[in-house]
Write a structure and sequence with these properties.
With 149 residues, the protein is of the alpha+beta class. It is 44% helix and 22% strand. The protein folds into 2 domains: 1-67 and 130-149; 69-129. Strand 1 and strand 2 form a beta hairpin. Helix 2 runs antiparallel to helix 3 (102-126).
Length: 149
């Protein structure tokens, strides 16, 4: 199981929009690798996840959720391998059986990769990700309540 702590950014009834907590980019190498450069170039724009809960949440509240690893592996294999496989199949068929020029072979390989990507996206829409709520952290008390005001 992959676990992640998320923060509620906005609420619409029982539907809450969650954003993952930011992690330090370079814990292991102190910025010697390329991830720090990419982080500076593209920023840390994490997408928000919309999720419907059984109870009302508040903005700023933390939620710990988990995702089954097998779905992540299946999704990665579909997204990375299916377009590549289709591109190679279209390329080999166009080169060996059709004997067309190299420009057309490249174009057909690109079309094959695009078809593979569309098929992978279609298959990913059918995958039922098993997201489990592990813990909903309570809102922290304001300092005025702790002091007894």
């Amino acid at each position: 199981m992959i676990e992640q702590t998320l923060t509620v950014t906005s609420v619409d009834g029982l539907k809450a929009f969650l954003k993952p907590q930011e992690k330090p980019n370079c814990e292991g190498c102190n910025g010697q690798c390329g991830s720090k450069i990419f982080s500076k170039l593209f920023g840390d724009k994490s997408p928000e996840l919309a999720f419907v809960f059984e109870e009302q949440l508040n903005i700023g509240q933390k939620v710990k959720m988990a995702l089954d690893d097998s779905h992540v592996l299946k999704s990665a294999l579909l997204v990375y391998l299916l377009p590549l496989l289709f591109a190679f199949i279209f390329l080999i068929v166009s080169a060996v059986f059709m004997s067309i020029s190299e420009v057309w072979q490249i174009l057909l390989a690109f079309i094959g990769g695009s078809i593979g990507f569309l098929l992978a996206r279609n298959q990913l829409e059918k995958v039922n990700y098993d997201i489990k709520i592990i813990k909903i952290y309570p809102n922290s008390l304001p300092l005025t309540q702790i002091d007894g005001d």
